[in-house]
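Troubleshooting: if your tokenizer reports a length mismatch, compare your output against this known-good record of 201 residues.
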Amino acid sequence: MLQRTMETLDSYINRLKDYTKKLHICGDRNSFSKTDYEATFMRMKGDAMKNGQLKPAYNLQYGVEAAFIVWAGVYPNPTDTRTLIPFLEDFHAHIGKRSRKLVADAGYESEENYLYLREKGQTSYIKPNNYEVSKKRKWKQDIGRRENMNYLAAEDVYQCAEGRRLVVTGTRRTKSASGYVSEKTIYTCTDCNGCERIWYH
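Known-good structure output:
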């Protein structure tokens, strides 16, 4: 009985050691490849099977100026959002300069990135995530979207197309995978009864 208990305990200890080792390898990522610990599982754009299969990969980043590649980096992050700041910091550390203007696609848009660029004195030209959909008629006619409301700065309230007022009812704090804390103000309409233009999403 004692021998069986010791064997069970040894099994648990070995599993705990293995789990701890894998957590250490992962770091702040959510996965790694067993054959290449530095690779992270990502969804590929060129997915021939079109089944969203994850594959071990790296996120390559290039900085281009006047059609010349001026810097490149390889990152384990599956999304571009979290590679912008490390890429620019790496560029600055090695080149010693910062670009005055930065152009990037929608994959790099985030509050954290915008604030970083502003603090460093860099003008950003990043395509908004909702740029394409915001041009559609359905989006423009949706009175429930903040972009389609009037903001009354003196009162800190929004007013929808029906004249209903949305007042501050609280704040919500969220923390990104990089540790950045974002605080958003919540506006709520006190009474939407009888409004025939409400669109539920």
